[in-house]
Amino acid sequence: GVLDLLVMENCFYDRGITRIYDLKGSERNRFNPEAAQNPHDPKEVHLDDNLRAELVRLPLTVEAASHAELLAALWDDTAFLARLDIMDYSLLVGCDRHRNVLAVAVIDYVRQYTLDKKMETWVKGSGILGGNGKEPTIISPRDYRARFQRAILSYFTRVPGSCRPKDLPRADDPSLPGRAHQ
Predict the structure, then answer these.
(1) First vs last C-alpha separation in the chain
(2) How many CB atoms lie within 10 A of CB 140?
(3) Full-model pTM
(4) How far apart are CA 110 and CA 106, in angstroms?
(5) If 0-12 CB within 10 Å is exposed, 13-18 middle and 19+ buried, where does residue 150 land?
(6) What is the spatial distance between Cα 85 and Cα 52, in angstroms, rounded to a whole number?
(7) C-alpha–C-alpha distance, residues 121 and 48, integer Å
(8) pLDDT (tens digit per residue) in 54-93
């Protein structure tokens, strides 16, 4: 048989990753209790529900320009995948808290929405196998993309761009409002 492979660069190369997230946007079976019990273990992979529980205390902040670039890239990538009838992908996020950097990549099975996946959607969506009324993890590529994008919008907090020290005005700068020109 034929085996197709997708080879990607290691987005964590030469980074001091202190936390890893595997994010799909799904609410079904997306909690890793081991990661919750060992939050400081950089090898534990946190899932969507782990992140949702942490966001109030530890938001994933991204500067406005980087946030716009991230969303543009993800929107293009997910549109491409949906056009190819592909779903079941994740956003892998590595947090390098020493450098204040997030390393991200779209990863996972990257499966086409074939008949077996359509059946899985139907069976899981029917509630026959439980699921507590939550949407199945496997859904059509168009719906998968929409769910993924909604989640990404809620996971990352956009913050104003940073100001380098040389860009900051001095306290005695006469051009500051309220300062008299001498």
Answers:
(1) 82
(2) 15
(3) 0.76
(4) 9
(5) exposed
(6) 28
(7) 20
(8) 998 989 999 999 999 999 999 999 999 999 998 889 999 9
